[in-house]
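Student: Hello, beginner here. Can you help me understand the protein record under this note? Any guidance would be welcome.
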Amino acid sequence: MRISYDPIYDVLYIKLGGAEKVYCKDVEEDITMDIDAEGKLVGIEILSASEHLDLSLLLPVEIKKEALR
């Protein structure tokens, strides 16, 4: 599992697995689940994360800056 957080956009992503293609299913207005072709949950995206979670319980989160391709 990998958790990443972008403080500029207040977006949290929890990566549970990998998949070439995913189906995005909205759970709530700001919460989306990524599901693979077999129906397994591979990720969760939370917009406006600080409004939905107490981020102090998750932090510190390792922040990596990846080069633009």
Q: What stands out?
A: The first strand starts at residue 2 and ends at 6. Helices lie at 49-52. Residues 49-52 form the longest helix (4 residues). The mean pLDDT is 86.
